[in-house]
Design brief:
single chain, 182 residues, alpha/beta, Glutaredoxin, 5-stranded mixed sheet, 5 helices, 7 strands, 30% helix, thioredoxin-dependent peroxiredoxin activity, oxidoreductase, GPX_AS, Glutathione peroxidase
Length: 182
């Protein structure tokens, strides 16, 4: 099984085969519009603008499981992101990332890398607080909060899992390496 075996639904509910993204570097992120990490949309969009033409794709999966911070429907969420943050990368249908209704894609991602990469003591303490607040983070490997980011290489291998406290721009050196960009 690989990431290319999965289909997801775009925000209009149409199937999208991840096999269409072969030979691309992917950032897969669960998001929310009312979260303290929501401004990370700016960093994600900057990475997208900078590296999309070199092979970067960002897959945005809104999720309402953490503090009910993505309460709108798919169109409302999309409108918020495009108006407030000028996002142009692909946004998909709202999903669950933990629990019995978790997206099969997220079940796979969590199985590939079970622990978030967290830089610095301050960020580790912040994530401990987030874990306490999270009511859906019950099993090892579960997503702890909004804006957990997975990095996937051109061969479809999940090579990184970044906590919400890691800003998108902190991923840039690894993205450049995967894209073979100086």
């Amino acid at each position: 099984m690989s990431i290319y075996d999965f289909k997801v639904q775009n925000r209009k509910g149409e199937d999208f085969a991840l096999a269409e993204l072969k030979d691309k570097v992917l950032i897969i992120v669960n998001t929310a519009t009312g979260c303290g990490f929501t401004p990370q949309y700016e960093g994600l969009e900057e990475l997208y603008k900078k590296y999309h033409d070199k092979g970067l794709e960002i897959l945005d999966f809104p999720c309402n499981q953490f503090g009910h911070e993505a309460p709108g429907n798919d169109d409302e969420i999309h409108q918020f992101c495009t108006l407030k943050y000028n996002t142009t990368f692909d946004q998909f249908k709202k999903i669950d990332v933990n629990g019995e209704h978790a997206s099969p894609l997220y079940q796979y991602l969590k199985g590939q890398i079970q622990n978030d990469e967290i830089n610095g003591t301050k960020n580790k303490l912040a994530m401990k607080g987030v874990e306490v607040l999270s009511t859906t983070c019950k099993k090892p490997g579960d997503i702890k909060w909004n804006f957990t980011k997975f990095l996937v290489d051109k061969e479809g291998k999940v090579i990184g899992r970044y906590s919400p406290t890691i800003k998108p721009e902190e991923m840039e050196p690894k993205i450049k390496e995967l894209l073979s960009v100086n």
